[in-house]
Amino acid sequence: MSFTTPLRLATSTTARRIASPRSIANTPRIATRAFSSTPSKMVVHNLQAKPEFDTAVADKDTLVVLDCFATWCGPCKVIAPQVVKFSETYPNAKFFKLDVDEVPDVAQELGIRAMPTFLLFKNGEKVGEVVGANPKALETAIQGNL
Known about the structure:
Elements: H1 13-18, E1 44-47, H2 50-57, E2 63-69, H3 74-89, E3 93-99, H4 104-110, E4 117-122, E5 125-131, H5 135-145
Keywords: Disulfide bond
GO molecular function: protein-disulfide reductase activity
Organism: Myriangium duriaei CBS 260.36
């Protein structure tokens, strides 16, 4: 004795009720999307305390790009995906984010007055600064300091 189970496709509830196992191939399907599980080449790390900042900036011979942002800042949200792309495009640089509201002591020490502000460090020293959501200026600063 053989048992056959009708194949269930991702279909709407109404279409499933109407369709018989023989005509299920003709029912409308709900679109599905496959996601890749491959990790991106680089990521932007979130700094949450002054010791993390000190360790990140002290990295020798590596360009460190620090994105000083605020969660309520519209331009910060707009440029964030571009910063992630830069982290993939420039794997020789390290990218970090600093929420000025969560780590105000570091933001004050750095003199952050506007968001977003991008600071570039090399060998523990500040070598560049870009104020505002200007991807071209940021990329130029990154290229000039690699």
